[in-house]
Specification:
Structural class of chain B: alpha+beta
Number of strands of chain A: 2
Helix content of chain A: 55-70%
Number of helices of chain B: 5
Strand content of chain B: 15-25%
Largest sheet of chain B: 6 strands, antiparallel
Oligomer: heterodimer
Distance between the termini of chain B: 82 Å
Radius of gyration of chain A: 19 Å
Strand content of chain A: under 5%
Order of helices and strands of chain A: HHHHHHHHEEHH
Distance between the termini of chain A: 45 Å
Helix content of chain B: 25-40%
Shape of chain A: globular
Order of helices and strands of chain B: HHEEHEEEEEEHH
Largest interface: A-B, 28 and 26 residues
Shape of chain B: elongated
Strand order of the largest sheet of chain B: 2-1-3-4-5-6
Largest sheet of chain A: 2 strands, antiparallel
Structural class of chain A: mainly alpha
Number of helices of chain A: 10
Number of strands of chain B: 8
Chain lengths: ~210, ~240
């Protein structure tokens, strides 16, 4: 089965021009909560992608049978059931990872990207494109999360992936970690800066009516 | 078929609920044994690392059986209660009870060099949620041999550092606890700390450790937790001494 260029676009578009965080401004809540350290950001990005792939696939398979009037409830049930099952499996087989994720697994349910993709894409498309769309959006979400986490961990705690990168000599010379970077508002400002950079490069993203 | 008719919607949602419920309960019951096992192994690993024995998930059980030689359940007068298995005691439930009804577990570890250590579990409140851990004492019941702490949701990089050995737990080793003025009738906040956790106090002071800068409330939480939980054992220590 060969992928057409149209299929490929489903994966690559969300990385930049249709990025779920910086262009659609979805999933901001988790981008604030878990970008203090890179490790948790990567794990969160992976779990969101996995849950998104499966929920997109299931919704797409059921799309012709789901009654229109209760479709949001059905989508929510699919996502919630998947998240709980993933959580149970993690607890049983990779306990360490599950401890690290703790509340974040539950937060996946509230991630607007999931409901957004199910409603906007999986409800109207075949399974294969839906899975590709899920991969693309998961990756687009992950890229932004990792960039934000990289900046916040580096400037906020002088570490990357938990390892110290700012040498002790700097601290002795008077360098101080920016404690503000650890607090949630700085995640919002960092995301805002990314959006600013992206829009000044790609002028077509700027809304005309303003 | 009309997917928007009422009867279709009822049937669809009923079937969906049954399938989802079956899948979830299957996952929950089928995996429960493994999950409980993981929690038990983690507890054993924590108890071992409190007496500075490293263990992996695989050898934790064997090392636990080898080194943890005795375990007791203790009441507020320091007496041993036989009815309850100390390993399964729920610290959260016990701490919610009044002191007279409280039962706390204590574990005795025998190390390779022949010395015995007393391991006391501790539990308290940090900034965002519960914090807990284990403190092990030398056989004088005063000097701390090792300590481990963990937390549910303290701020990463700040309060969460209490779970780091190098940043926080290491400095407890060799410190002494002061139980002399402990009064079970008073709350931990209103009495002299068993061991002070204050920023900049730890250096050269046998009765204090350095708190975490930027994690003051979590540090104080550790201090109150130690006062509460170690204080409970002062009758027990007096008897065994």
């Amino acid at each position: 089965m060969a992928l057409t260029s149209k299929d490929l676009k489903l994966v690559t578009n969300p990385l930049n021009m249709e990025n779920p965080i910086t262009v659609q401004v979805l999933g901001i809540c988790s981008a604030l909560a878990i970008t203090v350290q890179m490790k948790s950001a990567v794990v969160m990005a992976l779990s969101v992608t996995v849950v998104l792939i499966f929920s997109n696939l299931i919704t797409s398979l059921l799309r012709n049978t789901i009654p229109n009037r209760i479709r949001i409830i059905v989508q929510l049930t699919i996502v919630a059931a998947l998240v709980i099952i993933v959580d149970q499996i993690l607890k049983a087989y990779v306990y360490d990872v599950s401890k690290q994720l703790s509340v974040f697994v539950g937060l996946i349910i509230t991630n607007c990207i999931l409901m957004g993709r199910l409603e906007a894409f999986a409800m109207g498309n075949k399974p294969l494109p839906s899975v590709l769309d899920a991969i693309g959006n998961g990756a687009g979400y992950g890229v932004i999360l990792i960039i934000v986490a990289f900046l916040r961990e580096l400037l906020g705690s002088g570490k990357i992936w938990g390892y110290q990168v700012v040498p002790d000599a700097f601290y002795e010379m008077g360098y101080v970690n920016n404690g503000l970077m650890i607090l949630p508002p700085m995640a919002l400002i960092t995301v805002g800066t990314i959006i600013w950079v992206q829009r000044s490069r790609y002028k077509q993203l700027i809304e005309q009516n303003g | 078929m009309d997917t928007n008719s009422n009867s279709y919607i009822y049937i669809f949602s009923s079937v969906m609920v049954i399938i989802v419920a079956a899948a979830l309960s299957l996952a929950a019951t089928g995996l429960k044994e493994r999950q409980d096992k993981n929690v038990e192994i983690e507890k054993k690993q924590n108890l071992l690392s409190c007496v500075l024995i490293e263990s992996t998930v695989e050898d934790a059980e064997a090392k636990f059986d080898q080194h943890i030689v005795e375990k007791y359940t203790i009441d507020h007068q320091g007496k041993v209660v036989d009815a309850v298995d100390p390993f399964t005691i729920d610290m959260k439930a016990e701490l919610a009870k009044s002191i007279e009804e409280r039962h706390m577990p204590v574990f005795i570890a025998k190390l390779d060099d022949g010395s015995t250590k007393t391991i006391i579990p501790v539990r308290g409140t940090g900034l965002w949620g519960p914090i807990w851990g284990y403190v092990s004492l030398n056989d004088d019941n005063k000097t701390i041999y090792g300590a481990v702490f963990d937390h549910k949701s303290e701020t990463p990089g700040l309060g969460a550092e209490i779970s780091s050995y190098d940043q926080f737990q290491k400095q407890f080793e060799g410190k002494t606890i002061e139980l002399g003025s402990y009064d079970p009738a008073k709350e931990a906040k209103q009495q002299a700390p068993v061991l002070a956790v204050t920023k900049g106090m730890g250096e050269g002071n046998p009765n204090a450790v350095d708190g975490i800068s930027g994690g003051t409330i979590t540090s104080k939480g550790v201090q109150y937790m130690l006062t509460d939980c170690l204080g409970f054992f002062s009758p027990y220590f007096n008897q065994t001494h």
